[in-house]
Batch of 2 targets.
Target 1
Amino acid sequence: VPPVPRQASVLHRAPVVLPIGAEPIRDGGVLVDGQRIGWVGPAARYDGPTVATQDWPGLLLPGLVNAHAHLQYTAYADMYAPDVDFFAWIARFPVRNRDTPEPAWAESARAGVAELLRTGTTCVADITVQRAAIEAVADAGLAGVSYVEVVGADAASWPDHRARLLATLSTADGRRAVGVSPHAPYTLSSQVFGDCVALARERRLRLHPHVAESSYETEFVAAGTGAFAEANRRWGLDMELMRKPGRQSPVGYVDGLAGLGPDVHVAHGVRVSAVDRARLRERGTVVALCARSNATLGCGAPPVAAYRAEGNAVAVGTDSRASVPSLDLLAELGLLREIALGQGSPEAGLDRWLVEAATVGGARAMGLTDVGVLTPGARADLAAFDVPLDGDPYVALVRYGAGRCLGTVVAGRQARQAGAGMGG
Ligand SMILES: [Zn+2]
């Protein structure tokens, strides 16, 4: 047993502790020492000083990592409807955003944070253009990165967008890590996309664009035509791809703009070939899968089985409430499992792979090494779930975990609790 820290600590105990990256522990204990984890092991073997204890009547694991969200759009839940067309859906945002009053953004983001905590997520890659959203996530103390989005820009409008980007990046003032999200290949001119990448690299900020989501995007990048070409013409945006078609895939195009790398994770990765997947692996770029959003918007299913078989690094995101019925990350795992099996992925080990994607996979997407695992020195972010405890805990979590979160701990502090008592 490793040495135990001396300061006041809380020993969280559970019938099963799932550390991730190590075997499940029956009657496990996780010592929370301030904002960090001090010790993990069978609770009975803890022989440090007497500390407060907390017993969770369920499965205890690291808080989940949502690798793609837009918390500012939580209040747009009325836009969610099954089977809408991606282009028709996304075209509604500019007007809706313009008509949203300033105070509503903070309220919307706070509602998103509350839903994350209610469902076991303690770390988030949140895309936003609103300072209020960065502040809401920082106030809650969630781990992760807020990516400031640049959308609808060409060379002429870039100076204005760039100034807004820089101002918004300074919001967190050290309270929250920030990054840059060049929105997507079809809403930014090539030059602007490339400049966003360069600006992020100069400032050592991480990047998180949407890539290879819809067939509209594939067409726009390859041929410079289709619904997005018409929309860009309407919006008066001068796009290089419309003058000189890219004749390549979205992944290839973004790579050509230096937009892939170990400091980047992309959202969606639905419309990808074997060559694209190999490119993502070569560049060390994680893909945040958002399967429920893809299904809602008619974008098809991501190639989950191929990503798994070929060894791509993947994470899991929800996208926003405008395209999914909840921000419950475990609800994503149920659908990803179904997709993987339907695509011929072997069932053995699948649940573990999915749970790892929703924890360490998300951490890796954001370059974080101290979240998504229960190990001494990691952030004390925990989530407990009321799932059957007699079988494989990964299977139980994927099959029964959605909607069954008992409580979460964020940086050592209890953020939400239902049905667990404080002892000690
Ligand atoms: Zn998104």
Target 2
Amino acid sequence: VRGWCVLAIALAGCFQPSPPRGLACETECPNGETCVDGLCHPEGYTAPDADPVDAPVDGVLAPDANLDPDNDGILTPDDNCPSVTNQNQHDEDGDKFGDACDPCPMLFGGDEDTDSDGVGDACDPQPAVAKQHWVVFEPFTSASTMWNYPTTGVVANDVMTLTGQTAQLKIGAKSARIFVGGTITNVSSSATSHQFGIWPDSTTSTNQYYFEAFDKTEGPENGFRLMAFDSVASNYIKLDEVLYVPPLPNGAFAVQYDYSSVQQNVSATGKFGSQTFTISSGAAMDLAIPEATSISFGAYSAKATIQYVAVLESVP
Ligand SMILES: [Ca+2]
Ligand SMILES: [Ca+2]
Ligand SMILES: [Ca+2]
């Protein structure tokens, strides 16, 4: 009988001298553990304070510095990013998460972050691969030294307004997803061409791969397009396009432009007014896509009222 019992213990652990960790106990727990509030815990464990000192008392906040752990002057119960310093509390998409801690700051909801890389699934080129991070989210609450503006005053009232102008964001990336959104209107009914574009620039190469919405009334070139510019041959190469009837569709617009010098491809998706598009360069080309060292945004014979620009980078 004894032999059977020893064998049974070895195989199935049928004998337990005291309750296992995390299970109910009265006083007794395994060696190295202690019984607290009816459960076994590692020794040294203390029960959480049932009545934290910083809890509101009769509707009045206790004078405790812990209520503002990020020191932005906004007490935690009212802070839309309780652990990130964000004094302006700006919330671009109005989803109650401040831009500073919102994993997808320009899209209401969509904040699940499956791979926990800080970029919400709805914004993430690889939602199940933790390789992304936000480089910048720009809600235009104030002028920023990260930009070269065409004129002073283009940033006001939480937007950047470009009318026949280009603004340059002084950041780069090897592999980036660029978001821009706002509203667009054509400025002159007599203009024969309208354009909105995103031009990643490079200090190491004069090759350019850009997105544009472009139309010319005298020509057949109307559409949302991905273009390459070969500066050596002074040659423009159309990579892909979705046509629209000119002029440039007005109304709300949003563009998501993927630019990769690592994968050697570009693609874009978005909408202008009711016109949507999805375009892609496809396979790598002979004309190398350079690492972007800055990113320009421009509107011509059109007024772009830009509410946000955001850039995330994928680490190879
Ligand atoms: Ca905060
Ligand atoms: Ca938000
Ligand atoms: Ca993610």
